[in-house]
Structures are given as C-alpha cells and as structure tokens.
Amino acid sequence: MSLYTLLMSHPIVRLVNGALTGNRVGYWARLPTIALLAGLTACAAIDQPITENSTAEELYRQAKRNLNNGDFLGAVDTFETLGARYPFGNYTQQAQLDVAYAYYKQDEYDNAIASADRFIKLYPRSENIDYAYYMKGLANFSRGGSTLERLFPRDLAKVNQAWLRAAFADFDTLVRRFPDSSYVADATERMKFLHNEMARHELVTARYYYKRGAMIAAINRAKYLLEHFEGSEHVGNGLALMAAAYGTLGQEQLQLDTLRVLALNEPKHPAVAGLDLPKSVN
Prior knowledge:
The chain has helices at 3-8, 14-21, 34-44, 56-68, 72-85, 90-105, 109-122, 129-142, 147-151, 161-177, 184-211, 215-228, 235-248, 252-265. The chain is mainly α. The N and C termini lie far apart (52 Å).
C-alpha cells in the first residue's frame, strides 16, 4: 500500500457519518458502498461561503473541500475556525485529525505533531488513535525536509537524529499498541529504514573521528553502533572501523578479537577476506 493510499485512508468520515446517521463508518478505504462516496462528492460540489452562522457541518465540509483541492492553508484556517466555534462534537473531533494532516501537507511539522498530540490527549479512547500516532511519526520523519529535497533526497544520516528517534518511537508505539492497524505495515518498513539510517549516522561520525586521528572517539562511536543498532546493515563496517582504530593504537589483540567477530558475522567482508584468523581467542 502506497503512502498516498495510507494518508487518503485516514478516518475522515467515520465520525461525521456517525453524526449524520448514528452509524459508525470505517476509513475511506473501508467504506462499504459507493453511494456514500457519491453523496459526499455531490456535497463537495456545493461551495457555500463561510459566515458567522455557518454550522459545524458546513465548516467541516468546506474545510474538507479545501483539503481535497490542495488548499491546505485554507483547510487549516477553516478547521481551526470549526474548533473555535464548536469546541465539542463529532465534527470537531474529526477536524483535529484532519488539521494535523493539513499541517503536515503544509510542511508545518511542529503544528502537525501538536495537533496529533492534542487529539491523543483529548480522545484517548478514540478508535482513530492509531492514525494520530502514524501522523506524528510521518511528521517527525519529514522534519528538516524541503520542497527541493523531494526531488533530491536528503541524507538522513546528517539530519538531527532526535527527529529520527522521535519518528521511530512514534511508529514503534503504533506497531505495539495497534498491531491490527492498517498503518502498521508502512510504519514497520519505516522503522527498519530509520534503524539503518541512525546506525549509518553513528558510522559516519565514527569515520569522521577516525580520519582526524581521534581513535578513542572513533572506537566509542563504533561501540555505540554495535550496542544500539544490532542487526543493522552497517554493523560490519562498524566492526572493521573499530579494528582499524585498535590497530592504529597498537592494540593488536583487541584488533584481532574484533576482526574475528567480524569474520564470524560477515565472512565475506573486505576487512577479513583472505585473513587467516584464529578460531578462538585466548
């Protein structure tokens, strides 16, 4: 399932439809009939100006029209107006999630996260909580990005790692607490990606220290990689760098021990290829 499909499947009609019919309806992707979609489309075609007397439903539908038309700033403004005029009710509850998405599309990640957090705090028992955590993860994942970087991807190993750790934690919460959520598959893939990118950050930093002759710092950073990112594709290179740093310091036994561990885990790694290493360490 693509990211677009996941985002467009967020719970934008469940509460609204409940307010209109008294029934609970699933996500867009789970809507049981085409008739409901057709009805919403027909309503969307009627563009009514917002006035002081606009009802919660009218405000919500206008905000949704803005959102669907790509007018994310207009959607944010209208959703915020809805929340201010009608602080309670199903439309306002649903708008809290929709405004998080609108902020996300506007690259206003702090506001997107704040909106999702507000939803989690106000509606802790909502069946849409999984989407709130997913949106938080996406916003943290996207921090530091720009329009240009959508064409030329950024190097995540060089961005603020606190953002990546926060994204990982959000996705992890989603996966653990809501294993049946439709967002789990995408969140799991993003967690694997983040795991490797954070490990690569440690490797890049260790190499930086190594090239400048700071061997102890390089070894410590490589150790951090091994301790916190087990299973990462960068573990082998971390061990190789650690062995090289030990060799530079004249710590031959530690170098040998490290190379042996590397050979056991990645026997084809260039750092141990062709080496005749002992099978055991005294």
